[in-house]
């Protein structure tokens, strides 16, 4: 059984993948890994994960806040515990979703390949990995750490807003010679972005209906995004 939201909150990093995923050797399971900074998590991320689950028949989506994002060393990012807490709050009411501490508990710069290798080790062979993130990020995949290994372990899912021109990105990925399996997903709700929520909070505007009320409460309580901009 997939654990209840209450059980999830008490999980340790070691058991952050649902224990019965892959339990029936007679079938294939699909695990989605929703990678992002989630500073903060918003409804666009939640809709993306739900749409990916529906379109790709995922059995579970692990939301994976990046510990120390590889390409964000030059901007102030909220602390990993705050981003994890908001992710946990936002995902708690959906039995298909789970928040993972795997990346925030790992020291050093967060590389996706390390996460995927760890999950590959922890999951039985009949569990396929689908790494979901923004298409803007997927476009750079060729330059990611050990990109060839990522292509071996996981299918990539790039989420975009409708009308986003992917032609040159597709050409670059195909031209790389690395056999990536990339699926693209149009998500209208991705008109929402974390920077939009940060900017609105900074200028005292409401972010109601852009993310969960529980996340808004947490942002207010912790005073996030009010200070000087990086
Ligand atoms: P980013 O550059 O901040 O995001 C690029 C775009 O994608 C933004 O519009 C962002 O919107 C959107 N986005 C990010 N995560 C998303 C998600 N899960 N679903 C839908 N849209 C999403 O990207 P990032 O957050 O730093 O990195 C994304 C993922 O790629 C992370 O898991 C990160 O660890 C991984 N990554 C790995 C490497 C590496 O291994 N070398 C390098 C770069 C990134 P929002 O700002 O609204 O989220």
Q: What does this 3D model show about the protein?
A:
There is one protein chain. The protein is of the alpha/beta class and 230 residues long. The chain has one domain: HUPs (Rossmann fold). Helix content is 35%, strand content 16%. It is built from nine helices and six strands, in the order αβαβαβαβααβαβαα. It has helices spanning 5-9, 43-56, 80-91, 112-122, 135-138, 147-153, 167-175, 194-202, 213-222, and strands spanning 29-36, 60-65, 97-99, 127-134, 154-160, 182-186. Strands 3-2-1-4-5-6 form a six-stranded parallel beta sheet, sandwiched between helices. Strand 2, helix 3 and strand 3 form a beta-alpha-beta unit. Helix 3 (80-91) packs antiparallel against helix 9 (213-222). It is globular and about 50 Å long. Mean pLDDT is 90; it is low at 1-14. The structure holds NADP nicotinamide-adenine-dinucleotide phosphate. Residues 34-37, 45, 48, 66, 69-72, 110-112, 132-134, 136-137, 144-145, 159, 190, 193-195 line the site of NADP nicotinamide-adenine-dinucleotide phosphate (NAP).
Outline the secondary-structure elements:
Layout (H helix, E strand, L loop, with lengths): L4 H5 L19 E8 L6 H14 L3 E6 L14 H12 L5 E3 L12 H11 L4 E8 H4 L8 H7 E7 L6 H9 L6 E5 L7 H9 L10 H10 L8
Parallel strand pairs: 1-2, 1-4, 2-3, 4-5, 5-6
Helix pairs in contact: 3-9, 4-6
The structure holds NADP nicotinamide-adenine-dinucleotide phosphate (NAP).
The site of NADP nicotinamide-adenine-dinucleotide phosphate has 26 residues, from β1, α2, β4, α5 and α8.
């Amino acid at each position: 059984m997939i654990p209840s939201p209450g059980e999830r909150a008490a999980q340790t990093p070691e058991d952050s993948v649902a224990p019965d995923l892959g339990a029936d050797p007679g079938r294939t399971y699909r695990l989605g890994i929703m990678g992002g900074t989630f500073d903060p998590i918003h409804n666009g991320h939640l809709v993306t994960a739900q749409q990916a689950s529906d379109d790709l028949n995922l059995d579970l989506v692990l939301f994976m806040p990046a510990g120390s994002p590889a390409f964000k060393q030059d901007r102030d990012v909220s602390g990993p515990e705050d981003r994890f807490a908001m992710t946990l709050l936002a995902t708690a009411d959906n039995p298909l979703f789970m928040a993972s501490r795997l990346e925030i508990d790992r020291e050093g710069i967060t590389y996706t390949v390390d996460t995927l290798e760890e999950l590959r080790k922890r999951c039985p062979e009949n569990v396929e990995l689908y790494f979901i993130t923004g298409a803007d990020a997927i476009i750079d995949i060729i330059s990611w750490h050990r990109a060839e290994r990522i292509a071996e372990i996981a299918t990539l899912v790039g989420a975009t807003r409708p009308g986003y021109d992917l032609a040159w990105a597709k050409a670059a990925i195909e031209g790389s010679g690395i056999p990536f399996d990339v699926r693209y997903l149009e998500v209208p709700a991705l008109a929402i972005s974390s920077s939009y929520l940060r900017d609105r909070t900074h200028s005292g505007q409401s972010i109601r209906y852009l993310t969960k009320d529980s996340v808004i409460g947490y942002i207010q309580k912790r005073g996030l995004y009010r200070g000087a901009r990086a």
